[in-house]
Design goal:
The complex is a heterodimer. Chain A is α+β, with helices and mostly antiparallel strands. Chain A folds into two domains: 135 residues, Helix Hairpins; 153 residues, Histidine kinase-like ATPase, C-terminal domain (Heat Shock Protein 90), CATH 3.30.565.10. Helix content of chain A is 60%, strand content 14%. Chain A contains six helices and seven strands. By secondary structure, chain B is α/β, with parallel strands linked by helices. Chain B has two domains: 123 residues, Response regulator (Rossmann fold, 3-Layer(aba) Sandwich), CATH 3.40.50.2300; 96 residues, Orthogonal Bundle (Arc Repressor Mutant, subunit A). Chain B contains nine helices and twelve strands. In chain B, α1 links the parallel β1 and β2. The two termini of chain B are 25 Å apart. Chains A and B meet through α1 and α2 of A and α1 of B.
Amino acid sequence: MRVRSRRKSIAFFVTLGACLVALAIALNVGWIILNWREVALLVFGIIFFVVIIFGLVINTTFLIREIRRNEQHDAFINAVTHELKTPIASIRLYLETLKTRNVDEDQRRQFYDNMLADSDRLLKTVEQVLRAGRARHRQRRIANTVIDLSDTVRECLELARITHGLDETSLSLVEAPSARGAKVSGDIDELRAVFSNLLDNAVKYSDDHVNVSVELAAIDAKRVAVRVADQGIGIPNAQLKRIFKRFYRVPGMFMARVKGTGLGLFIVRSIVEKHGGRVFAESPGLGKGSTFTIQLPRV
Amino acid sequence: MSAVLIVEDEKHLADGLRFNLEAEGFSVDIAIDAESAEDLLLKKRKPYDVVVLDVMLPGKNGFALASSLRKAEQFVPILMLTARGEAQDVLRGFEAGADDYLPKPFELSVLIARLNALLRRREWLRSTRPVGTANEESATAPETPPKLIEFDGKTIDFDALELRSGNHIVRLTVMEAELLRYLIKHDGRIVSRRSILEDVWGLREDTDTRAIDNFIVRLRKYIEDEPSQPKHLTTVRGVGYKFISKARAKTKPSGKVDM
């Protein structure tokens, strides 16, 4: 009996203990269940907050990028419209003049020369735009012929001298013996466009005093480099990579003085990359000139 | 001989224009950028009769040049040449203070006609010209427009290109004066934007008529006490504008106006 009563009393305390434990657990679990919502809200809140902030940042970044792209596109359309319409306006003006007025022989000759120069300019713009259009198709195959790099560079140099009215001192060529007879594989017209674009830029962005030197040198047995260095307005450090982007032009007063479409260097980069090479720009800073280097694989 | 300043950086275009304008009897100067144009027009104050201004200039562009000229109270008539003849560009040009525009490529005869029209307006508006041109004027213009108009305490002096309101004097550009004159001529009647473009600017092509609105806004600033609640120059929705003056227009014979 005692034992029984003891058991009873124990049972009571055990039951009480068990009940208390159960209550504690129930309370704990209940507390957790009850507070789980808040914790969950807190956790979800933090996650949502992070997601929203992330989304906002991405959105703003894209928006700014889009605005910039629109601005660049606008500037490009402006520049191309100007580059197309100005020579047409000029040719038209001269034709109307020749048709309606008495023009003496010397003047007439001058007018013809001006019209020829304008039609060349027009053709150049059209070709540049078409080339940029082609450059976007990365998979497009290029004609593969073996090209003498030295001859091609010389040819482009000669053409640039004639177009810009320069002599051999202001537009010079240095050919390292290692690069003599260097041959590359690719499309000669496209490569000509590359060198002409770089030479035109070098002249265009040199103020009145043009001093451009072109250097042809072998880097190693497999690669050859063409360097075009000018003493012109230079490029800020932060812009050295961006200038190769389509439509991109370095903002600021210097560039506003020189007209351009923002296609030239984009074309250069696309063509060079299609030929398995690379191109990069270097400049000690604004007003200190710049150097463009093209590296191409030799064959 | 009328003097023309061509502000154009494209050498071929500038040379071609010079040849033709000289053949038409103009004396021609060329400025290759905004800075040299400002030097001639503002510093040296050379008396040009009309300026042909290209928009796409290296450095400071044509819009900026036009507004800086107007700010500096240089009210020589400006004909703007724009490669992009879109409404937006035309509007910007007028806003900057141009009097007329022509998109590139242009017809030579149209350019010359436009220049002559600007010069003629200037002659009409200013009796300070030599007597020879005044005679020509009466031959080409059948009715002599009034030189001095008063309304609501304001006086518009078409000779001096001035609008006087009490002690306050506002200088008007040729086209502002011309538009004001047109509106006053049609006092109390509704005039459409298109008829304004056709009669005042002589534009027949499909120009955006909002170009007018900029001028109206400017005129309201000059003639209204409360430009946001115009009393004289009201908008007729969907049609155009109406000018209502309460006072009469005084007409004085040309050439005898005291300034």
